[in-house]
Amino acid sequence: MRNSRCIAAFLRVIGCSALVFAFCVPAMAQSSGAVAIVGAQLIDGNGGPPLHNSVVIIQGKKITAVGQEGQIAVPAGAKVIDAHGMTVMPGLIDMHVHLMILGAGDYYKWFPWLEKEHKAPEVMRISAKQLLMAGVTTARDVCGPTKESVELRDAINEGKEVGSRLFVTGAFVARSCWMLSDYYCTKVDSPEQAASVSKERIAAGVDWVKGWAGLQPADTKAIAEVAHAAGKKVVAHGTSDSEILGDIAAPVDSMEHVGNGSTGTLSPELISKIAESHIWIVPTIMQGWIYKLTEDFPERLDNQQVKKDLPPDIYKMAHESDLNFQRLQYYYPDIQQRIRVIPDSMRTMMSSGLAGRMLIGTDSGTPLNWNVNSTATEVQLFVKFGMAPLAAISAATRLPAQALGKGDDFGTVDPGKFADVIVVDGNPLDDMGVLQNVVHVFKEGVQYK
Q1: pTM score > 0.90 for this model?
Q2: What is the set of domains in the chain, with CATH numbers?
Q3: Could you tell me the pLDDT band of residue 263, with boundaries at 50, 70 and 90?
Q4: CB–CB of 224/234 below 8 Å?
């Protein structure tokens, strides 16, 4: 008996400590039976008022019932999670992440090192776990080495790796690949080449095709024709009037960085054209605003969770240059102008009929932009610049699911959908900052936190 007790205690100890990664993820082995999340305020993502004293029942991968205490029965033997004083809501969806970067500032060192040391798979796994633990149950990774991106997505779907559910683009298709090698970006010189590379990406298994720097309207149109014919979608930058007009003409399915300051304040004529196009908009305002946040509070550079999550060599390489972020090549010379433009640009889009098509996407992983808090902060900024809190939550849940073509599967807390559910400590309708206080995370019914 004594030996049995010792063995059991030993097994309990090593259950978490054996994990190489810094996160303890007890739910890798699925529990049997139902789960009942009881007592929380429910924000279901549909945009309506919250339901107080809620009960959410999870059985297997799905949500099976939603109601209020006293009106809905908790199944016998269910695991009960006491969420009184908290908020239960859909898992967040980030439509613009870069799993391969981790906040690295000096791209001229980071990308060659990543490729030379074969670190991309490890870095991408870490990023996917960080996002999940921050309550991001689904993410669209809009650039990465193609083979590794597809492999990680599939490994997560098969339960072999822990991370957000991924939709991936693989490497960029672009006229200019800047300092990026073929590992991250394929340079094309004609619409025919753009179409050919897009076919290669689709054959490799990507979910979306990503058009990047310098593409001509004819290139983007060729990419869109190939992708749409194959049942895939296209994401492209909208950082200038000419890019936006080319994207609309193609048409693409999602435009990135629109209104984040790089385009200035959009003209009424251009906003009207965007509205008529029905293209989803991902402003990624964190891409510029992150510098203001860091200037205001430089101590954020020493994020303890980031340091805990990363192996020492990766942490050193990713962040050693960030302490001098004002000198980074990626630190835009016009950053102060962009910071001044962002509030007015966002308010203009929101008040011009585009609010219902604006999605949360953070450029997470770009310099200073940690996975551990980027998505929650982007939602905060949507509210700061004029979006109603319930609408901002929908922009981070229901609407991205629709843009991904998965609105029937996840994005809201409704019976029959996947149990992608998070519990946060506090009331986001009063203070969206509580989205950084994620207490519980479920993805497809498995509890990861």
Answers
A1: yes
A2: 15-90+412-447 (2.30.40.10), 92-403 (3.20.20.140)
A3: low
A4: yes
